[in-house]
Please model this.
Amino acid sequence: MAEKKSLRERLRSNPRTRHPYRIVVGVLGGLIVVGGLLAIPFPGPGWLMVIAGLAILASEFEWARRLQDYTVRHVKAWSNWVRRQALWLRLLIGLVTAAFVYGVVVLSLHLTGVPGWIPSWVPLWR
Model:
């Protein structure tokens, strides 16, 4: 009895769908990576989006697999390094990170306008 091929295997093996499939994977993965890069300075899953986009790209492109491995390796190395530091340094890194994120949020709100639902007592650059 013949094994049933997955949809991905069928798309890859068919000369008529191989290239359009790779284009769709490339565009989708690229959009997710760009969205993640834009989201990095903001609170939220910026790096997670970048790594997810690279995972999508890596399913079809060897260069993306190498870049994903490099990115994951360095993010893990940074995380491990931070965990090994003294508490005062981890708190300082957290404080600097929070100040940077606050600055990005304030600058973004200054450029786009502060929504009316944010109370005036919230310290934002208006």
